[in-house]
Amino acid sequence: MQKRVESGLVACFVNDGIIYQKKDMLRILSDLLFVKYEQYDSSGLKKTGEGRVFRVYNNATNSSILMNGRIYLNVNSFEYLQIHTDPNTNTSYFELFTPDFSIRIYPLDAEDKEVQWQMDTISDKDFFEGEQEED
């Protein structure tokens, strides 16, 4: 049996890990729909909310916005993403880190929401007009 050379391998994450690559962060976050979020700083929990993730992107100009039930996440707003598994529910949640605070994101089941948002009713075309996503 031939031994595998590990120097050329890329990371593999199963339920837990720390993600630094922006493309990997995009892949992980882009299929989220309804989420609960919590913002923490060095003194503890600061803000909480729930919303729909409308867009996850990677560019140098647009901010991340979490307000009024709408979530737009720019992975360039964060240094890294950590994947956690809740031992009580065995479900994963995500924590995005900046130098000053972190945001925990807990996926929610769309079936549990009373009102189903229509994806085509609210467009972010004007918000991103002319913006190019970076790799």
Instruction: Report Rg.
Output: 17 Å
**How many structural domains?**
1
Strand runs, count:
8
Helix content: under 10%
Q: Main β-sheet: number of strands, strand sense, barrel status? A: 8 strands, mixed
Task: Return the string of H and E elements.
Answer: EHEEEEEEE
Strand order of the largest sheet: 1-6-7-8-2-3-5-4
Poorly predicted runs: 114-123
Q: Give the termini separation.
A: 38 Å
- Taken from the alpha-carbon principal axes, the silhouette is globular
Structural class based on helices, strands and sheet pairing: mainly beta
Please provide a written account of the structure.
This protein is mainly beta and 135 residues long. It is built from one helix and eight strands, in the order E-H-E-E-E-E-E-E-E. Helices cover 6% and strands 39% of the residues. Mean pLDDT is 83; it is low at 114-123.
